[in-house]
Amino acid sequence: MTGSLIKILESGGIEASAPCRIDLGGTLDISTFYYPLRHLSPCTFNIAINLRTSVKLLPLKKNVVRVSSRGFESAEYPVDKAPFNHPLGLMFAVAAYFRAENVHIIIDSSSPPRSALGGSSSAAVALVGAFSNAFAKRGGDAFAKDETAILAHALEESVAGVPCGLQDQLAAAYGGINAWHWQREFKEPLFNKETILPGSEHEALKNNILLAYCGMPHESRNINSRWVKGFLSGNNRDFWAEIIECTDKFVRFFKNRKFKEAAEEMNRETAVRVRMTSDVLDGMGKRLVNAAMENGCGARFTGAGGGGCVWAIGEADEINRLGSIWSDILIYEKDACLLDFGIDSKGLEVIG
What we know:
The chain contains 12 helices and 12 strands. By secondary structure, it is α+β, with helices and mostly antiparallel strands.
């Protein structure tokens, strides 16, 4: 990083932030799945939430990239020697793409670490947005939201070692409540965005949604890789067809604010995942899901499960009652808690 860009950072730095998400229908946003299943019109659903991940770029008078993030030990490397298999490797990969040196990247997340809310993806989107806007100050245009999401996804997939979906990056870039319809024909756009509820209805929707952190961090690679390997070997194809059907019906019910019916489809989708991979729900997750079902609500793990968070949907009275029940369950696991959140309609924001 040289010349005018260093001066830009010395004049005040660049800050960016992007939201995390809760979701349903994930894995179908991986091309391994949506190309062979395109005749079934796969889509995924997510809600951007205001548990945002922020990044700040500050000048550093050393020929290295330094990354600091809450919950991780800070690390610094020359840009050409930074390890991408490091716990902060995705951030180093983004810096390497932009050939960024002499920079201190500070990351702060308002979501629990490894909570399956897409925090690493929102961090990557925020960091791509920050670098893009910084370089644009030397001339040219910053990346559009779709370009930012696609690049952040490509970099994350390149260092993950397994196929990754795109919906997390899209939620981080665009915000809001959306269904993402995946490419059916090669010449079509990679995705089509369907806004499910406008921003004017987001505040009222808080009464219909609940989100809990189970107290145990997740590791999505193992479960995701097992789903991918099973699909590639020809197994469970009927399960994925059912997940597509559940997701489509959920989206239609949600859009029409029929939360009881949406909850039934959510529970059906969760049950299919459990049949494929029993450990997609840990012990706490199972207790939360069972309690939701017993009280007329739907519940599902976020992301690829295996720890992290569980979210629920239902009519306002049922969700209110479930909140008290979940609180009583969560006290038995250290760090487990209900998360206070709202719906984020802004998506990626860059300052500086």
